[in-house]
Amino acid sequence: MLRYIVKRLLATIPVMGVVALFVFSLLYISPGDPAAVIAGDIATAEDIARIRAQLGLDQPYLVRFSGWMWALAHGDLGTSIFTNLPVSTLIAQRIEPTVALTLCTMIVAVGLAVPLGVLAAARAGGFIDRAVMAISVLGFSVPVFVIAYGLILLFAVQFDWLPVQGYRNLGEGFGPFIRHMILPSVALGIVYMALIARITRATMLDVLAQDYVRTATAKGLAPGTVLMRHALKNAAVPIVTIIGIGVALLIGGVVVTETVFAIPGLGRLTVDAILRRDYPIIQGVTLLFSAAYVLVNLVVDLSYSLFDPRIRY
Amino acid sequence: MTFTLRTGWRIAAGIAFLIGSAASGVALAQGKVLKFVPEADLRSLDPIWTTAYITRNHGYMVYDVLFATDANFKIQPQMVDKWDVSKDGLLYTFTLRDGLKFHDGTPVRAADCIASIERWAKRDVFGQKLGEMTEAWIPVNDKTFRLKLKKPFPYVLDALGKPSSNVPFIMPERIAKTDAFTQITDATGSGPFKMVREQWVPGSKVVYVKNADYVPRKEPPSWGAGGKVVKVDRVEWIYIPDSATAAAALNNGEVDWWQQLPPDLIPVVSKNKDIKVDNTDPLGSIGILRFNHLQPPFNNVKLRQAVLAVLDQKDYAIAIAGDPKNGKPCPSFFTCGTPLANTAGSEALTGKRDFDRAKALVKESGYKGEKIVVMTATDQPIVQAQALVTQELLRKIGLNAELAASDWGTLITRRSSKEPVEKGGWSIFFTWFVGPDITSPALNSPLRGAGEKSWFGWPTDAKLEELRDAWFNAPTPADQKKTAEEMQKRAFETVPYIPTAQFIIPTAYRTNLSGVIISPVTFLWNVEKK
């Protein structure tokens, strides 16, 4: 398995190279000029040209790309055009809220979706099944920001139970941390929950129709044991796969959630950087997200062997 | 262990206690902290490198200025204790106040002031003009320095006391020696607040603490002049990009002050009796419709005059501000409510909106239905509102107007294109300036006629440039006013741009705040939190 892991990790290098080339080229051809944003509305074209030269933005494509790749090879993600801070520092400042939000969302979503999906499959066609599916459809249909505003209105403005916005890190105490995480994770988790619940239900229905499940029931095992120990374990592979795919959904959702709840995470960093054309940040964060996605897929692949002993690497 | 209902309740009560006690701890720690939602995210710390208003506002927190404009448009000394001018008007001598110190504890010296002004003069439009007139800045001793001019220039103090971007803030010499086109990252100043650099999270939060060493002037505050007395221990700028969230946070008391309240949220926020919605900006902002003078069809003055004949500022005011209380016509090329605002030639905007005349002018111009590209930025509501009103107007007078919608970042790049519309050029774009930025010919960049050296749109008007030069040489306020009137009259004939409306973006703060200064720039000194 170690050899497989090393092989997969090495395979990420060309993937990241392609991502780097793609992102850099896309930004190069896209309209917009950070020098114009920096100079402000009153500046003249000469001012802008001088700022552009100062930032090296007047250099040809190959010079800029090779310079960036050379720095990247030395572990330097570059410096933000606007804040003049290293991109690595900005990412370090922002990674904790995003990781915390992602983890809390996954806990909320997986913690609710899997039992609901199992229950819906076990009571297929009944009230619980229909209710779970209705919630899933709702979760898919209502945009994250609408759910977020609804939660803010209810739990922050009307009841004043939870804060409207912001982030507190764990260093400031578990209480403030969790108070600031509840609404964003629920808002973001609902879509994710809907996806996992539906897949769990569909996979469980497949598994529950298998002969070995009938055999287990026939030999007198309790329904709960049949469901959890025999059926769910065998349905786990597609569920884990969809959780992995869902990470990509989460990355998209994080941008909206962080904006609505004013959480200083990587999603907000990226959107702000795009709006003002802060190329080094966009490039750095995109590479980071790509690496994270590749690693999540690796973990998902490895986890298959835990659920299905027939899978070996 | 068996999980019973009773165990469940105990766990729930424990979590509720933890969360509750954490919340009360946070509330206790907030005693003298002013939580302020600024108009934008602070991206750069250098108020000379960028003209962004948010960076200017940051500058006012951490830096001090030699002179400042007060509410009567008079230039008042701030860091300067006394100054005099030689009889021939060529030599200014400035002496600094006692007790001025930078945040690192070093005293403010004449050399710091000279280095700061020289750096500013390389970037600012007014500063560049002062630079042209300057023979030398001469340090006399640590507290005194002189400005020697090549010829008399009546606007020395106006330039040094200009209230808006770029403001000539005073920095330590070691920082001010940085090239004017290279961004500084050290926010050491001598202003009433110190920035806590290590707590700065770009895109989220900026933290300032009271500068205990700051010695305020004795006079009461008046705009940027007078005593800058800080009445809170700490100020947190909390950037909330989503306006609905900012409204909820203000309603809840999570923040104390929201600098710019969008028009559509005024009714929502006003319902809360603990919040005051206020107009603290006496000058507001001015919307601007800018033509491309290099390319057809608006390189033809008749077509620009046709638009001027039908443009109704009331429509723009309501489109931008929503509430008639917050928007009004301003038929002057200088900010209404300031000394140089006048009515010369303004019947072009205040008279009857004449569609027949406009159509006749279009015909006379020889317009043959060429495509007109009206640029708009959908992420800038003020720009978007002006664009939509204008597109409708252009269609009504028979012009083939097409909206080119993008984000602001794309728009400001495209506007530098001098190409025809078929090759990525443009015909019209919109922006707005805060009132203090267009109060005089020295500041009003769109009111230039210097061709390709002018601001985007590049109008050529030799007479306008002559009048501008005459204004710089006008010896008395009466002469200055007269020349400004002539400039305006000329501008209404050649139409370099059209001012679309004067509007105010209200501010909203909790009623436990007092001492908010009425000013076109938001200052945070003098504000008390009960």
Secondary-structure map with pairings?
The complex is a heterodimer of chains A (313) and B (530).
Chain A: H1 2-29, H2 34-39, H3 45-55, H4 61-73, H5 87-122, H6 127-141, H7 144-158, H8 174-208, H9 211-218, H10 223-260, H11 266-276, H12 279-307
Chain B: H1 5-28, E1 33-37, H2 53-62, E2 64-65, E3 67-69, E4 75-77, E5 80-85, E6 91-96, H3 110-123, H4 125-133, E7 134-139, E8 144-149, H5 156-160, E9 169-170, H6 173-176, E10 193-195, E11 205-210, E12 234-238, H7 243-252, E13 257-258, H8 266-270, E14 275-278, E15 285-291, H9 301-310, H10 313-321, E16 327-328, H11 347-350, H12 355-365, E17 371-377, H13 381-396, E18 400-406, H14 408-414, E19 428-434, H15 462-473, H16 477-494, E20 497-503, E21 507-510, E22 513-514, E23 528-529
Parallel strand pairs in B: 1-12, 1-13, 17-18
Antiparallel strand pairs in B: 2-9, 3-4, 5-6, 6-8, 7-8, 10-11, 11-12, 13-21, 14-21, 15-19, 15-20, 16-20, 22-23
